[in-house]
Design a protein that fits this description.
The structure is a single chain. 42% of the residues lie in helices and 15% in strands. The protein starts with 9 loop residues before the first strand and ends in a 7-residue tail after the last strand. By secondary structure, it is α/β, with parallel strands linked by helices. It contains 7 helices and 7 strands; from the N terminus they run βαβαβαβαβαβααβ. The relative contact order is 0.15. Helix 4 links the parallel strand 4 and strand 5.
Amino acid sequence: MDLFDISGSRVIVTGGSRGLGKGMAEGFLEAGCHVVIFGSSDKVADAEREFRGCGYDCTGIRVDLRKEEERVWAYKQATDILGGLDVLVNCAGIQRRHPAEEFPLNDWEDILQVNLTAAFRLSQMAAKTYLAKDKPYGKIINIASMLSFFGGYTVPAYAASKGGMAQMTKAFCNELAGRGINVNALAPGYMATELNTALMDPENPRYQTITDRIPTHRWGTGDDMKGAVIFLASHASDYINGAVIPVDGGYLVR
């Protein structure tokens, strides 16, 4: 079981103040890791206090991931606090809904900056950190989506960002896998998070359609992400590279 032991690992989780990111951050903390979470609001300080109140080693950094200077600053702050880095989880994401033909350009640009460009830049920085180790090693775990596989409705920017996340995972894998760095992605299914508030409205006809398609008969939670992300962060997954793994209750197979 030593293959699954990640205690002492130094971890950054973007979007770690709420939803799936918070659930995964909690999983790392429960596994004995040192964790820095990134968040865009005061919720990141609330999450830090909550985790520290449980005795965990967690630091929260408020950062606007749309801005390059803040991305660079936050990464340096995090790695200084942690004394290095072993695992990067790119989970931060935002959502905006409009008909495709009316989708505002500013919403498109915000979503691509947060959901994809920030993950790209942080992955570049993490790769350089890992390669500078005496024995290069590290994990990059991207959070993709069901919309990495299909297009959705009224969410063209989100779908583009998550399709890009899957392809970026494969591209980074091709260049880094042979140098000791694992790059993989998890693709959550339909999750009970703030991003899906509109879909989870019982008055929305898609809510029941989606629920009926899930073989486990329920939407997922942050807890459902813990095992998969810990696996990808551990030595147990050292020969898994460039994968996009669904965590969807079986949704894709129906």
